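Model it.
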Amino acid sequence: MAAAHGLPVLDLSAFDAGAEERSVFLRSLREAALGPGFFYLTGHGIGPALTRDVLKLSRQFFALPEPDTLAIEMIKSPHFRGYNRAGFEHTQGKPDWREQVDIGAEREALPVDRSAPAWLRLQGPNQWPAALPDLKPVLLHYQAEVTVLAIRVLRAFAAALDQPDDIFEPIYTPAPNQLLKIIRYPGRDPDQSDQGVGAHKDSGFVTILLQDEVAGLQVEADGGWIEAPPLPGSFVVNIGEILEIASNGLLRANVHRVVSPPAGSDRLSVAFFLGARLDATVRPLQLSPELSRLARGVTQDPLNPLFRDVGKNYLKSRLRSHPDVARRHHADLLEGEPASSEPASAY
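Modeled.
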């Protein structure tokens, strides 16, 4: 297993190769999971032309006049889709200095029913900028491609846990939770807060991150933070809270943050989050005795409780991160805990 900048580098093509190469890859994947929980991924099969187009169009969007970006401002969407100005998303109660567009699966909104599970309100259409019509087809194409990639990574994690490759399939098919974010981190002066995005964990199965050439991502480790600068041709992959819950902490969602670039520069990234269906419940896997001994238990954090009900866990994150949207569209949910649901299925 190679390493770059403190994080391991894994070649996904080995997962589909011969038995010996696959075995070496899965061992390296387990080591990465037990270590930083983050790694660079090569051999992923997504061509450079597509990633270049995604970064180019993302930069074009953030260069649009303000009226054009604000035309799709997230405050207009009860489904938490659209554009956020810098400082409008919060982590641990503090504003993140980044502007971004949130894009989910293109699905029709469901009628609002106060007696139904609250997470049903998350389903709905995206907002797209009329001033940049090329953005929609490219990002939806990229979302489809990176969804396939994320499922391949998920199958590899299952195999690394000595489970059938498709063990998680019942809780993400036929409609996984997909979230794509195009993000720009403006530069800041040294006397300003450097919180591009504050320390946090991701809530889904896995995250697939595309970076431009500017560094800023940091991963928590014993004794400090590991820098994760861009590695050309690779993605950064990290474990989400669903895998932590399912594996009893053998696969742990690790804390990470982004530090703002210096004044006069900016940083662009595109993050894709693959999650389970919102109506699913995460059940613990039956691990072998050998792997069970390595399990560290699910993180117990009163400030970030983890729920096995996927919709409840995801809604919790959305309400906290976007208080302006929550107040406008979901004020009734702020009076108490979001409604839970009975599981439609589990694995």
